[in-house]
Write a structure and sequence with these properties.
Elements (H helix, E strand, L loop, with lengths): L2 H22 L3 H24 L4 H29 L4 E5 L7 H16 L4 E6 L5 H9 L20 H9 L7 E4 L20 E5 L7 H6 L3 E7 L22 E4 L4 H7 L7
Length: 272
């Protein structure tokens, strides 16, 4: 990836964050800036992936290695749920994917099902819908939007609580756990499950350390939270994992029983 692409992606990331901050302060244009920045970031990502990011051999090996680690992460999440929530019914939320990402996300779901085994029943696997403003913006740019060609829909400007709520509400009385492989929306404080009388529990993969997550785990709303280690050894990014035993080298599995100690003892403070 050349320096020009890096600069564009950094600017888009900065614009996205600034837009979200301004939106939360009440500026109407903040949301538009965040969405526009997200579009630029997604287009740069698509361009980089399709070009292989440089050396085609290296890029292929990197994607294969990262897909293997992601499958392991989700499989470990499934194992934990099978051990601690046997007999539960679950709804799985999977990110929308494009091109080469389809194989990775299919591997994630396969890993999850393998981890769950027969202990937890998956009622349905669903994906977020594309925001109408994103479709309109891409149409104006002359780009046809194909759901099967979209990058993972975990971007904070595109994956919001209203879309999460729309996916979950129809299943809230049918499932005990919602397993999100798409992380949590940036405005997670607006999730209706915080206010429901008997909400399903959440198990999450793919979110960074976000405000409010600590309290949600402590209170038992989130029963399992898998995220990247901030102190992971850089060597793990060069080695193909052998199996679930390599989970701890790259990830944290955070639960209501471990969150307090992990947050207090971790040198970088997980949720501060």
């Amino acid at each position: 990836m050349n320096i020009f692409i890096y600069v564009i992606m950094l600017m888009a990331g900065g614009g996205m964050i600034y837009g979200i901050i301004q939106q939360r302060r009440g500026a109407v244009w903040g949301h538009k800036l965040a969405v526009l920045s997200a579009v630029v970031a997604l287009m740069m990502t698509m361009w980089t992936v399709l070009r292989g990011g440089g050396s085609k051999i290296d890029a292929k090996e990197i994607r294969k290695r990262e897909a293997a680690f992601e499958r392991i992460a989700v499989e470990r999440l499934g194992q934990y749920l099978a051990e601690n929530h046997a007999g539960a019914n679950a709804l799985v939320i999977k990110p929308i994917a494009f091109g080469g990402m389809r194989e990775t996300l299919e591997a994630q779901v396969a890993g999850l099902l393998n981890g769950l085994g027969d202990a937890v029943s998956v009622v349905e696997v669903v994906t977020p819908k594309l925001p109408q403003e994103f479709i309109e913006m891409m149409d104006r740019a002359g780009t046809k939007v194909d759901v099967m060609e979209m990058p993972p829909m975990t971007d904070v400007s595109l994956y919001q609580a209203e879309r999460f709520n729309a996916l979950v509400r129809d299943y809230s009385d049918k499932v005990d756990i919602v397993i999100s492989l798409a992380g949590l929306p940036s405005d997670m404080q607006n999730l209706y499950i915080w206010r429901a009388n008997t909400p399903p529990k959440l198990a999450v993969y793919g979110s960074p350390y976000m405000p409010g997550v600590l309290e949600a785990i402590e209170q038992g709303f989130i029963v399992a939270y898998v995220t990247y280690r901030l102190d992971a050894d850089p060597e793990t990014y060069r080695i193909m994992p052998k199996g679930v035993e390599d989970f701890d080298s790259r990830y944290h599995l955070i639960t209501p029983h471990t969150v307090g100690a992990m947050d207090a003892d971790h040198p970088m403070r997980l949720f501060r």
